[in-house]
Every structure is written in C-alpha cells, then in structure tokens.
Amino acid sequence: MSVVTTPEEQAVVAGEADDALDATPPRRRRTERGSGVSATRKQQTRAAWVFLALPGALFLLFTALPVVIAAVVSLSDYAVIGPLTWTGFDNYVDIASDPFFWIALRNTVLYTVLYVPLGLVIAMATALLLNRSARSARVFRTLFYIPVVSSTVATATIWYWVLDPQHGLLNEALSWFGINGPAWLYDSHWAMTAIVMMSVWAGFGGNMMIFLGGLQGVSPDLREAARLDGANAWQVFRYVVVPSVRRTTFLVSTLLIINAFQVFDQAYVLTKGGPGNSTVTIVYYIYDRGFGSLQMGYASALSFILFVIILAFSLVNARLTNRDTDR
Known about the structure:
Blueprint: H1 7-73, E1 76-77, E2 85-86, H2 90-96, H3 99-129, H4 135-149, H5 152-162, H6 169-175, H7 191-215, H8 220-228, H9 233-244, H10 246-261, H11 265-270, H12 282-292, H13 296-326
Antiparallel strand pairs: 1-2
C-alpha cells in the first residue's frame, strides 16, 4: 500500500529532516568537547601526583620521619650504643633545672638581639645603594653575595685572622685612630660580638638580594608623587619605601630570627663555645649533649624546646608586622 503525498507535504518533511541533521552535530560536538576536557583534567591531575610523588616521599623520609623519631627519642634515655629506655617527660623536666641550658639560651638571645637588627639594617641599606641599573652596582651585588655561597670554615678562617689580637686587620685599623682593640675571640665580653660581626658579613648578601627584589617592586610614580609634594629623601624612604617593602622586611626578619637561633658553625669553628661558655649557643649545646655525651634523648628534647622558641619568636614577629600593616 503506497502513501501519496503532495509536494507541499514532501517539502515540509524534507525541511524537518534537515533541521534534525543540523541539530545533531552541535550536541555531539559538545559531548565530545566535554569528554575531552574531562580527560585532559584527569591527565593533568595524574601528572601532578606523579611529579609530587618523589618530593613527597623525600619529605616523608628525610623530614617527617626523623621528626617523629626525634619525638620518640626525646621521651627516652638513648645513648646510641645501648638500648632505648623509656623515661617519659623526664628530659623536659631536667631541662628546666639545667644551668647550662639557661646559659646557652641567654647567649643565643644575646646573639639574636645583636644579629637581627644589624643584619636587617645593613641588608636594606646596601640594597638601597645598589638599587640601580649601573654596571658598578651589578659588580658590587656579585661581590657582596660571594660570602653567602662560601663555606663557613673558609669564612671563619678569614675572620680568625681579621680578629687576631696581635696582628689582626681589625685591631690594626683601630690602632690608626689611637684605639687599643680588645682580644676579640679570647675575651668573654667581646667574643659574641666578634661572632655577630662575622655572621652579618657572611650573610647580608642573601638578604640584600631579597630586599632588591622588594625595592624593584616599588612604583616610581609613588616616589615621584612624594617628591612633588615636597618630601625629602628621608621622608620618601620612611613614608613610601618602608611601607611598600613591609612584607619583604617581615620575610627577611623572620629568616634572620631562625638563623640566629640556629647558629652553630661560627661558635664551633672560632671559639669552641668559649671563653668561659660565653659563646655556647643552644644548637652548640644540643650538639655537645648528643654527640659529645651521647645523650640523644636529652638532645632531642632540647631540639623540640628550640623549635618552640623559634616558633614563638616568629609568631611575635608576624604579630608585630601585621599590627603595623593594619595601621
């Protein structure tokens, strides 16, 4: 049985068929596009986990696991060559009554009080002087950064000669002005000052580079606007430059605080903690108790006390910086 249609009906049917064909490819393309984006996202996620696997494994193996082991050892009496004996929190209780710990803490705080402001000021001042595109500025940046990548032993050797009380360069320079220089490394009143001078000289180049990055982010328009308003160089520095690099200053000061409480190499190489325990720092004391007396449990407890102290000082520094920023 055949169905007879008029030409008008055939045209309508053909138009509907064409509309259906035209409507199908966009939906198909959208589906294919959606599946392509989903597949690409899965590939990116898979690749991200692959790249994070090795650093994550190294972090767990060499950072997280040692911290856990140190926490366990800090609650025990362990001498490396003998069995581990559980003692609970006795090590932490003994630290509170340990006079040598308080001497080391006092020396470390003194070092921090001297080192952090001096290192901060010198690094910022040097960055301000070298914040220009001249070739000489680039040369001095390189020269000032060389001590940062030098070994502490080599740096200490140089400063041991500079601070020599008889033929040292520093005392010779002071004698030109009629000043009789002290026996830096052999005088308990000056030994810590000598270590601070060496530390500042050896490390300010890295902080200088950080400040240079912050200073180059200060808009020249702000300085120009301040000058047009009649501000002098000091006012431009105080009201424009300092607020603009406040976050950089916080970063540098935090790094300086952490480095100050972890000072060890300078005291070990130059003075061995002397004279009269005047340069014994907390890390030096940890090293002495752990590897000198083989009291690993006690040394581990000291390490966690040091971590709490560094964390507290860093939080105080962050609090002060945020308060100044809010103003």
